[in-house]
Amino acid sequence: MRVASYVAAAASLTVPGVFAATQMLASVDVSQVLGFDAGPDSFYNAPNPPWVAGSSPGWYYGPSPENHPDMWCLHDYMCRLLDYYPNALHCPKPKPTPSPTTTTKTVATTTTTTTTDTVTVTVTPVPSDGYVQIFSNITAAVQADDFMTFGLTETVDDCKAMCDSVPGCTFVNTYHDVNGKGGSTELTCSLFQFCHTAADADNRGGQSQPDGSIDFIINSDGWCKEGNPVTSSAPAPTSTASPSPPTTTAAPTTTAKPTTTSKTSAAPTQTAVPYYSQCGGYGYTGSTKCLSPYKCTFINLFYSQCRP
């Protein structure tokens, strides 16, 4: 109601008061009039892009604003109000209708008497809307960092018109978000700064809705303004080099060493030394085994004796 009161006040002024009305509106920040930021810093009332869960369209542009009482509808008095704010989102301006072209053709008719007839043909050229279609009818929407804003429109042409009204917009992506956007049947209209290919369309929906349903994307079309390069923010595929044939390394030849079998000679059987006889000592070469139960007992460095 506050918005309507501003516009009504301006509309009620006479011609001499138009300048005063302009100054009055221009002196009030548009965000104070609307209750939200309608400029590019907040993505024209769509701060969250459509691929973020819980996001909402920032605006509606089309012939049925009465069907969207809770949305910012770009229609009638709202369009006139926004004209006072250069940085705000503006309503599309109607495009001029091309003038018919008159072509004069001279046709020679041969009869018994040669005559020349002049025929005037009026040709109305088919206007170009200035857009080239990049992809059509896919089941995913573009998701990219150069997102500018998004809203709802009734037709693709309305979405293109919105792109024409947003400074810097060169690409539109229109699609139906089934079960999403509050169950709306209108087209989602996403605007971008650069033109994209289907490689950047990786938003396939899949978000849970308040009613428990899951949204999904259909009828997604991409349109680029003529004369702008088409780019893709998707990473280029990594080329995989053909694997080199495995290198076969010959195993080193191992020369087996001859097995040496060592033979252990059995120790010679010693003769038992009688009781109290020598059984050891420096220079002694005889038996060191004593008759049982005697043992060879150390006496000194030069002599050991069998003792009990």
UniProtKB/TrEMBL annotation:
<dbReference type="GO" id="GO:0005576">
    <property type="term" value="C:extracellular region"/>
</dbReference>
<feature type="domain" description="CBM1">
    <location>
        <begin position="271"/>
        <end position="307"/>
    </location>
</feature>
<feature type="region of interest" description="Disordered">
    <location>
        <begin position="229"/>
        <end position="267"/>
    </location>
</feature>
<keyword id="KW-0732">Signal</keyword>
<protein>
    <recommendedName>
        <fullName>CBM1 domain-containing protein</fullName>
    </recommendedName>
</protein>
<feature type="signal peptide">
    <location>
        <begin position="1"/>
        <end position="20"/>
    </location>
</feature>
<dbReference type="GO" id="GO:0030248">
    <property type="term" value="F:cellulose binding"/>
</dbReference>
<dbReference type="GO" id="GO:0005975">
    <property type="term" value="P:carbohydrate metabolic process"/>
</dbReference>
<dbReference type="InterPro" id="IPR000254">
    <property type="entry name" value="CBD"/>
</dbReference>
<dbReference type="InterPro" id="IPR035971">
    <property type="entry name" value="CBD_sf"/>
</dbReference>
<dbReference type="Pfam" id="PF00734">
    <property type="entry name" value="CBM_1"/>
</dbReference>
<feature type="compositionally biased region" description="Low complexity">
    <location>
        <begin position="231"/>
        <end position="267"/>
    </location>
</feature>
